[in-house]
Each structure stands twice: as C-alpha cells, then as structure tokens.
Amino acid sequence: RLFAKVGAEGVYMVGAMDGSFGVALKVEDGAWRAAPPALLALLRSEGLVEDEVWAALEAYHSPLVVNTVGDTVGRIRARVLSTMNP
C-alpha cells in the first residue's frame, strides 16, 4: 500500500505505508499536469505498479494535451532515466 501527499509549489510525495519506499518530486514550474506521469513512471520503474494497474491508469501516466478548441495536440509522457537503487 502507498500513500501520497501534495505539497505547495509543485512538491509531491509518495511513500509505502510500511516505510520501505519514499520519493519526493518537485515540478519546477509548479504545474500539476507533470506530476502524475512522473510519479507513476518512477513507481513503475521500481516495480511498484503492476501491468494491470498501469493499463487502468493510462489517462494519468500518459494524459492527452488538448488545446482550447478541444483538439488533441500531444501527450505527456515521463521517462525514468535512472533511480537511486544500486
């Protein structure tokens, strides 16, 4: 089980209830839309998000970007380049 906390100024945290894992994310521009894809990608890279859950959360880990007319103009995707684990 995981818990999440939203902080001020683009800070987001996720941790394991048993204390075995924790991560903090700072989105530099403070925008909310980058946080879910980044956190979910990190959790998946650590093996904490199973395939079925990943598929069910597509709208959050890879959301569409829509312009003011309602046209889809892109998609937000996060990529984890490395982790702190050895």
- What's the domain count? 1
Mean pLDDT: 87
The tally of beta strands, per DSSP, is 5
Instruction: Please trace the helix and strand order, writing H or E for each element.
Output: EEEHHHEE
The class by helix and strand makeup works out as alpha+beta
Query: Terminal Cα separation, in Å?
Result: 23 Å
Number of separate helices: 3
Low-confidence parts lasting 5 or more residues at pLDDT below 50? none
Percent helix = 10-25%
Question: How would you characterize this protein structure?
Answer:
The chain is an alpha+beta fold and 86 residues long. It has one domain. Helices cover 24% and strands 27% of the residues. The chain contains 3 helices and 5 strands. Strands 1-2-3 form a 3-stranded antiparallel beta sheet, with helices on one face. A two-stranded antiparallel ribbon has the order 4-5. Strand 4 and strand 5 form a beta hairpin. The protein is globular, with a radius of gyration of 14 Å. The two termini are 23 Å apart. 5% of the residues are buried.
